[in-house]
Specification:
Layout lengths: L9 H29 L10 H25 L9 H32 L5 H7 L3 H12 L2 H4 L4 H26 L5 E7 L5 E7 H27 L5 H12 L3 H9 L6 E2 L14 E2 L11
Parallel strand pairs: 1-4
Antiparallel strand pairs: 1-2, 2-3
Helix pairs in contact: 1-2, 1-9, 1-10, 2-3, 2-10, 3-5, 3-7, 7-8, 8-9, 8-10
Amino acid sequence: MSWDSLRPAPPMQAICAALCLLTLLLSVRTIARFRRHLFEYRDPASESPTLYLLCWLAAGDIVTVVTVLCLLFFGSDIAPALAPYLDMVVRAALAAQICYHLVLAFLAVHVLAMFGIVSRHAEASVCDYYGPAAASLALALSYKLVTSLSVYPTLFLVVIPTASMCLMLAAAVCASALPSPSTRLVDIPLDDPDIIRVRVAMPHYVRFAQAAAGLHLLFHLPWLLWAHLQTHPSWLIALAYSGICARGIYPAVLTSLSPALTMQVVDDDADPAAPSSNETSSDTNPHHAHQD
């Protein structure tokens, strides 16, 4: 399979390779930062979709940039005996791209739930499965029988990225426009029957949603332009490559802005001014673990 038509000009290849290395570094740091919270005793931050879903984005970026590096340095020059392995790498990247956008869509749904657009109880009952569900669906959609369909390029290049972008923009608009309390109390089951109550700063959710929407446009709009245009000028190919190669910045920035990092553990007895039941989740159902 020839990939030469997808390769940018030689000077741009060096820039893309450097951006890929940057993404690898940032992705590893994003995952490492989550692991610190995951193994910290009674740390509720690891239960937040605004933090643990970013690890799925980082993992997708690692797969993607490895594929990009293979295309940049080998292309059609790869030996025929190794061509099937390159095809396997490309298929993995295909699944990673689909998973990436599905995770972003689930992240947008979580933000919408926190602001009451989507039922918080319904969202909490399924948020444990966001990552595995996105990965499973992505693998199914990257299966050879599916990719051979005539509508698949439109689905992969246009429908899925546009849908995730629209959801993220909707989440940012709703978070910015809708009135909400400055803080909200949520009960998080850590180890059954251990439950911890945290205070979540809603303005941090607004900032998180706005950053997620803006970065989504920045890194994926060139991709959509490339998919819609009949001709592909060299500058657009370079721009699309740059967005994909540097995308490790996306989860890295969102990790630093995650509302999970500013959640405060509170004591019910010491917090007489707790919000009303509409603002506080007191349900101890384990499925509410990720309602940050």
